[in-house]
Structure formats: C-alpha cells, structure tokens
C-alpha cells in the first residue's frame, strides 16, 4: 500500500498513510506502526547517516518505512527503564519536532 506511484489509496502517500496506520493502533505501545514523514526522515538521516533515510521526496518505499520504525523502536527500548517504558511514538514525536523538513 505504500508503493510509490501505485498507492492502494489514491492520493495517500506515505506521509498520510502512516498517520492512518498509527491512529489505527489507538496509542497502544505494542502497536508497531509509526508516523514517518519528511521531517522524521530528516532527523533519522542526520542522526544515523543511513542513506535509506536521505530525504528525496514525499514518496518512499516500504523498506524505508520499516527501517525507520526499527530505528525508533530500538531507540525507545534503549531509553526505557524499569520505572518508565518509552514508546516508539515518543521518539517519533521528537524526530518530527527536530526535523527541518
């Protein structure tokens, strides 16, 4: 459904479709879908230098989405403690606000 130039939902690119995926999870910490837009990709690229996150356009392949989710889930796990579990969506929110897209 995230395939560039062939979206299952017309005019829903990754920026909007990932919002749909996220909100369908109703905020559950174990729901794996995150919002990944251009601002998030800018932050992930700056932090990791991984070329998969290099912003090219508002369309990107599902492999980019999965890599972004993996990185943010990993960071959330590293930030979590026995007193407080950090959700990957909290990392995503930070990445969105830190991004310059």
Quick overview of this protein structure:
The chain has 101 residues and is mainly alpha-helical.
Notes on the structure:
The protein is an all-alpha fold and 101 residues long. It has one domain (14-98). It has helices at residues 14-24, 38-48, 62-79, 88-98. Helix 2 crosses helix 4 (88-98) and helix 3 (62-79) crosses helix 4 (88-98). The protein is globular. The two termini are 23 Å apart. The model has no long low-confidence stretch (mean pLDDT 82).
Low-confidence stretches: none
Assign an overall shape.
globular
Main sheet record: none
DSSP E strands, number = 0
Strand content: under 5%
Q: State the domain count.
A: 1
Helix content: 40-55%
Oligomer: single chain
What's the N-to-C terminus distance? Answer: 23 Å
What's the alpha carbon Rg, rounded to whole Å? 13 Å
Spell out the helices and strands N to C.
HHHH
Descriptive terms for the model:
mainly alpha; 0% strand; globular; 101 residues
Task: Reconstruct the topology from this structure.
Blueprint: H1 14-24, H2 38-48, H3 62-79, H4 88-98
Helix pairs in contact: 2-4, 3-4
């Amino acid at each position: 459904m995230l395939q560039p130039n062939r979206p299952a939902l017309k005019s829903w690119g990754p920026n909007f479709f990932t919002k749909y995926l996220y909100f369908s999870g109703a905020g559950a910490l174990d729901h794996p879908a995150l919002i990944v837009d251009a601002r998030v990709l800018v932050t992930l690229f700056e932090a990791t230098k991984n070329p998969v996150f290099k912003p090219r356009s508002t369309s990107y392949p599902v492999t980019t989405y999965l890599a972004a989710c993996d990185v943010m889930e990993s960071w959330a796990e590293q930030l979590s403690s026995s007193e407080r579990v950090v959700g990957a969506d909290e990392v995503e929110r930070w990445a969105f606000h830190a991004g310059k897209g």
